[in-house]
Design a protein that fits this description.
It contains two helices and nine strands. It is an alpha+beta fold. It has an eight-stranded antiparallel barrel with strand order 2-3-4-5-6-7-8-9.
């Protein structure tokens, strides 16, 4: 093998290794209720739904209220954390799910036939309310049209 080919192979390998976002073999674990409250409480969270491929932004107020922007509209509801560590969101009806951590990556999951099914990937957690609700307050209805 020529020096040029060997150098290209080494450089290419180094570049590809930089694409890895998570160390190999990092274990997955379910978050505790304290960890879920600390992760979400008082934060604006960007979520990506793995089924619908839609992004939403949600502010989790420490008092249990939640404000979400998606589809260019607003909706408000409530959130809580169960003693088992499930986060529960209620807009129309309440749904409770575990949060799976793998390093610094977080995913909302459900169990189906004994298997973990990943539903939502959380992209970022920002301190405070980063949303701009209509009229500077919480929406009165589930839909907001500018």
């Amino acid at each position: 093998m020529s020096r040029g080919c060997a150098l290209a192979l080494v450089v290419g390998s180094l570049l590809l290794s930089g694409c890895q976002t998570m160390p190999v073999g990092q274990s997955e674990r379910l978050l505790s209720s304290d960890e879920v409250e600390a992760l979400f409480g008082g934060k604006t969270v960007e979520s990506y739904n793995l089924n619908t491929r839609l992004t939403s932004f949600t502010f989790y107020r420490p008092d249990g209220h939640v404000l979400q922007q998606r589809f260019w509209s607003w909706r408000s509801g409530s959130w809580r954390v169960t003693p088992e560590g499930k986060i529960c969101l209620k807009f129309k009806r309440e749904r409770c799910r575990h949060i799976l951590a793998q390093g610094e990556r977080y995913t909302k999951i459900k169990r189906k036939k004994g298997h973990r099914v990943k539903l939502v990937r959380y992209r970022q957690f920002l301190d405070g309310n980063r949303l701009s609700p209509p009229n500077g307050g919480w929406p009165r209805s589930t839909r907001f049209v500018p």
